[in-house]
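name: query_chain
kind: protein
chains: 1
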Amino acid sequence: MTRFVLASASPARLQVLRSAGVTPVVRVSDVDEDAVAAALPAGTAPADVVVALASAKAEAVAAALIAEDADVIADCVVVGCDSMLLLDGELQGKPLTAEVARKRWAVMAGRAAELLTGHCVLRLREGRIVALAHDCCGTMVEFGTPDPDELDAYIATGEPLRVAGAFTLDARGGWFVEGLRGDPSSVIGIGLPLLRRLLRDVGVSVAQLWVGGTQLGSDPAS
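structure:
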């Protein structure tokens, strides 16, 4: 049975997978995303940046599983993802502070921007990486204009500080998203249509994961 390992601590990604019939094993990569991005050549395309970050996460978790000789490495897929908002030609990650989040929303409000999500899928069999597939999907997000008191309250929750682009679709930020052009699941952090294609590229059908997924326990995200 092929096991599914999610290389992410994101509760939103975990919930998307569970709702789609897969209960993954969760392993957190602890990759230094800023260091990975800084090491990329100048002028790297935005889609390639998020794919590189997703790949770094998947590779780190795969390496840890192999080093531990974990049971799952007999046959598993390790999936890493990374999302960033492309606005005015610049990638926006997690704002981390209220000041940065407020500045981002001052620019985003009433406009559309593209949420890019990079995906990397590694297939492990008998302790070796035997296949790899990666790609990026982009979804246009049309933002509303929060009232000043709404924006103050939203930032005070801390939610926009911890997510790419300073917004969520599946939580409080959804009140300020007026439309999407593309895949909603990719905006939450893991695009199911693209992931299905990448899994197929490494020899795994999503139907296999539905059958086995209900039998798996997930490690708590940290």
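note: Helices lie at 11-19, 33-39, 46-68, 98-108, 148-156, 184-188, 192-201, 206-213.
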